């Protein structure tokens, strides 16, 4: 069964040509996502998630 998730940030293109974004689930947990390195990780706060997003879009060179 698919978990409900909603993208709550811009979808940024990474250096490697993949995409990264922030999403929430029904419980309101923030999750950091990246299709390049297949990341799916909880974020502690909105500020932390946004900081990760901008930094990761530049730093991530993984390509699927
Ligand atoms: Zn990545």
Commentary on this structure:
This protein is an alpha+beta fold. The chain has one domain. The protein has one helix at residues 46-59; strands at 5-7, 12-13, 19-25, 30-34, 39-42. It binds zinc ion. Zinc ion (ZN) binds at residues 14, 20, 34, 36-37, 39, 56, 60, 62. Residues 14, 20, 34, 36-37, 39, 56, 60, 62 line the site of zinc ion.
> What is the end-to-end distance?
24 Å
Q: How many H/I helical runs?
A: 1
> Could you give the count of β-strands?
5
Look at the structure and give the mean pLDDT: 94
What is the 3D form?
globular
Uncertain stretches of 5 or more adjacent residues: none
Fraction in helix = 10-25%
Class derived from helix and strand content = alpha+beta
Biggest sheet overview = 5 strands, antiparallel
What hetero molecules are bound to the protein chains? Answer: zinc ion
Sketch the topology as an H/E string, one letter per element.
EEEEEH
> What's the Cα radius of gyration?
11 Å
Residue share in β-strands: 25-35%
Domains, number? 1
Which descriptors apply to this entry?
single chain; 64 residues; alpha+beta; five-stranded antiparallel sheet; 1 helix; 22% helix; binds zinc ion
């Amino acid at each position: 069964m698919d978990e409900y998730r909603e993208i709550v940030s811009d979808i940024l293109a990474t250096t490697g040509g993949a995409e990264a974004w922030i999403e929430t689930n029904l419980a309101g947990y923030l999750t950091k996502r990246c299709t390049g390195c297949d990341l799916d990780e909880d974020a502690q706060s909105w500020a932390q998630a946004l900081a990760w997003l901008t930094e990761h879009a530049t730093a991530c060179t993984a390509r699927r």
